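Hi R.,

As promised on Friday, here is the backbone we talked about, encoded as structure tokens. Could you run it through your design pipeline when you get a chance and send me back a sequence?
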């Protein structure tokens, strides 16, 4: 396909895209998705004043430019043969939350939602090379509405398009908007670009600190009784409503492991951390504080001494938490752990309960478990 053919292909795609009935459909779809996302955010426990939802329909000129792109693997063909079917950001929504854990919670809520089918998840923060370790941070989730969403029907001969959902913290959003206005529109030189990179590194650090502060505040509020002036009457006692920062997200699990087992080496790779997080969730510990209570309920030092001698495996943080969950759950945890072994892994399905049974016996012999 010649360059001229690409241009004609893009122009024809724009004519289809600009059809008034299709544009009206995209607006109705945007309203439907806006309402649905707000419901997901509320169900995830994020206070209304700690999140924003906004959306836009792709401008016709931008759509035309994207429709004219060549296939990277075959430049003679268009990348999008049927642009109104294939281009995934005709409708894009953005969720802006206060805390990193809230961003993770929204991402998880979308993944668990029966009304949206997740096609792809891209963490833009993972796209940077070693030469530029910090920069644009955002999670992009590409979804297709399922029938249960109740989305409006597209015009005849059009399909329901895929939808892009961007997830950011407030600080990430400010950085991205400023960079878009400066760096990518030619107003920023190399000196300003380096400042953007420095700002991105600081933003990542501040986001982490704010999350740690929020989690620490949640723990303190749980432990300390509230104090009121004498004579102040209240209608009823309610536990403090926690923002989702206290949920046991992947980020929260990493922080918790380092906090609970500081003398143990960290696990090798995020896979084992996600593995133990799944075990904790299935055991009923879906918040950081619930997991803290589980660790407090057992003698961690005695567990460590029981397995410090006579074993060949590394006593890393994930292994320490696995032993705590075993001590708390007993035989029930052995059954649960067997169920959580990946299907098809027959060797591990036989080994896991046998090893856990031996470890539980050792804990009983040591008097750690009744």
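Update: got your reply. Pasting your designed sequence below so it's all in one thread:
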């Amino acid at each position: 396909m010649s360059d001229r053919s690409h241009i004609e292909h893009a122009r024809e795609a724009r004519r289809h895209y600009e059809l008034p009935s299709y544009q009206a459909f995209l607006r109705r779809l945007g309203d439907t998705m806006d309402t649905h996302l707000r419901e997901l955010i509320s169900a995830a426990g994020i206070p209304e004043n700690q999140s924003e939802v906004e959306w836009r329909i792709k401008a016709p000129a931008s759509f035309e430019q994207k429709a004219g792109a060549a296939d990277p693997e075959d430049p003679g063909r268009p990348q999008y043969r049927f642009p109104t079917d294939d281009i995934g950001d005709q409708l894009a929504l953005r969720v802006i939350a206060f805390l990193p854990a809230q961003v993770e919670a929204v991402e998880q809520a979308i993944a668990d939602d029966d009304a949206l089918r997740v096609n792809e998840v891209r963490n833009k923060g993972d796209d940077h090379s070693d030469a530029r370790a910090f920069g644009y941070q955002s999670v992009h989730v590409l979804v297709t509405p399922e029938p249960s969403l109740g989305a409006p029907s597209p015009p005849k001969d059009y399909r329901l398009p895929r939808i892009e959902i961007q997830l950011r913290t407030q600080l990430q959003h400010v950085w991205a908007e400023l960079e878009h206005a400066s760096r990518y529109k030619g107003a920023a030189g190399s000196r300003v670009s380096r400042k953007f990179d420095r700002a991105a590194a600081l933003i990542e650090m501040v986001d982490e600190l704010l999350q740690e502060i929020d989690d620490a505040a949640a723990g303190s509020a749980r432990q300390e009784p509230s104090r009121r002036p004498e004579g102040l009457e209240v209608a009823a006692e309610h536990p403090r409503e926690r923002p989702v920062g206290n949920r046991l997200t992947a980020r929260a699990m990493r922080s918790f492991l380092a906090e609970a087992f500081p003398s143990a080496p960290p696990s090798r790779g995020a896979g084992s951390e996600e593995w133990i997080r799944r075990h904790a969730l299935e055991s009923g510990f879906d918040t950081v504080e619930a997991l803290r209570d589980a660790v407090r309920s057992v003698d961690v030092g005695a567990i460590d001494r029981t397995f410090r001698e006579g074993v060949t495996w590394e006593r890393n943080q994930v292994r320490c938490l696995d032993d705590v969950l075993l001590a708390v759950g007993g035989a029930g945890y052995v059954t649960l752990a067997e169920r959580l072994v990946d299907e098809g892994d027959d060797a591990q399905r036989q080994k896991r309960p046998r090893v856990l049974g031996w470890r539980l016996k050792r804990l009983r012999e040591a008097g750690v478990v009744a």
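One thing I noticed while checking it: The first strand starts at residue 51 and ends at 57.

Thanks again,
M.
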